[in-house]
Write a structure and sequence with these properties.
about 240 residues; 12 helices; Heme Oxygenase, Chain A; mainly alpha
Length: about 240
């Protein structure tokens, strides 16, 4: 088993079962051409810029989903954990704006950009699953983001074609390869395993698997919007210059 497969969740636990049940969709998400481009330093800048802006908008709704998790939480301890997560995400939005500025995207531009269809569909899907179900439904919808980015980083580090020197996207890779983030991703997978045991995950596996699979597909579309933006940028450039 590859390092990224054995790094999250326990053998026989709910997280790995969910991941295995949507293996093709999970592969398409965690090793998307967008990820290849980050790993090898070949991702077109317009693709990354589009992603960065939409990721900021995504974070806002991610915080809202965590707020819903406080309401849905099964214990006071879980409520405290989710409350801390909200504060961390809101702080991350400020850091994200500064990160965007480093890529030549001023805060005013980020804030003025509307949510893309991909951002809307993904974030509202997660919140809808949380509103319709219980804490396990919501956590399963969130897991492909939290755990998936941890796996993406491990896949990049294991990529034999990775550009380790002079890669413009190395700071992004470092963020998710960082031990702190990896620990958070592992904790999120372990929580899925624990909730699976306490909230009847085995009996509900079909519906939970459908949620997890759809979230993985929406993650892949979130990457794809960056590549689509880059293709549109190039097409516009060619049209102007022919």
């Amino acid at each position: 088993m590859a390092s990224w497969e054995e790094g999250f969740g326990r053998e026989g636990g709910l997280f790995r079962r969910l991941r295995e049940a949507c293996a093709a969709d999970w592969q398409a998400y965690t090793w998307h051409p967008f990820v290849h481009g980050i790993s090898r330093g070949t991702l077109p800048l317009p693709a990354f810029r589009r992603y960065l802006i939409q990721d900021y908008l995504f974070l806002i709704h991610f915080a809202r989903a965590k707020a819903l998790a406080v309401f849905k939480a099964e214990s006071i301890e879980a409520m405290r954990d989710k409350t801390a997560a909200i504060a961390a995400i809101l702080s991350e939005t400020l850091m994200h704006l500064k990160y965007c500025e480093g890529w030549g995207i001023p805060e005013a531009e980020v804030r003025a950009t509307p949510e893309s269809a991909e951002t809307v569909s993904y974030t509202r899907y997660v919140i809808d699953r949380g509103l319709a179900g219980d804490i396990l439904d919501l956590e399963v919808a969130l897991a492909p983001c939290t755990v998936g980015y941890g796996e993406v980083a491990l896949r990049i580090l294991a990529d034999p074609r990775r550009r380790a020197e002079g890669n413009a996207y190395q700071s992004w890779i470092d963020t998710y390869a960082d031990p702190g983030y990896q620990a958070m991703a592992k904790a999120a997978a372990a929580r899925i395993d624990a909730l699976g045991e306490s909230h009847g995950g085995h009996a509900r596996f079909a519906s939970l698997s459908a949620t997890f699979s759809e979230a993985a597909r929406l993650e892949a579309r979130f990457w794809q919007q960056g590549l689509d933006a880059a293709a549109g940028h190039m097409a516009a450039y060619v049209k102007i210059h022919i």
